[in-house]
Amino acid sequence: MTTIFDAATREALISRIQALDPLATPLWGKMKVFHMTVHCLIWNRWILGVDNPISYRHDLLGKIFGRRALRYFTRDDRPIGKNIPTGKAFLVKEIHGELAIKKQQLVETISGFTHFNNPADLHDFFGKMTKKQIGIFAYKHMDHHLRQFGV
Fold first, then answer.
1. Residue 74 CB-half CA count within 13 A
2. Three-state DSSP class for residue 8
3. What is the pLDDT of residues 20-43, one digit of tens each?
4. 72-85 pLDDT, tens per residue?
5. CA-to-CA separations, 136 to 3, 51, 78, 98, in angstroms, rounded
């Protein structure tokens, strides 16, 4: 299984982030490149527990369906499908800005997975996740959004 905790995988993600074109149009969804980069930056910081203003609480729908969905998303290397809904805390309103700065910050969060340690981590939909599940899903989340823009 591909995981963000693997050094070669992190390097490949970083190369893909650096290849993002600010003028690229999404292959699906409504996000623009800057919008997606900010979304991933916020999500990664939340998972890492770094500069994180978003609480760790398991929502009601997640308590009902989250464990089953987590098993589905982490059972194999199949990519996340298109147009999966985003949690409310990760919706980004800011769609324009300095992409180069946000890309660099996103690269820094990817590097932050080298020494992952966030005992407070509780996914809003999936609930408590093992480190292995976090590694797989964090990779799939980044891969999903990078594929969305063709990188």
1. 20
2. helix
3. 999 999 999 989 999 999 999 999
4. 889 999 999 998 87
5. 4, 22, 11, 29
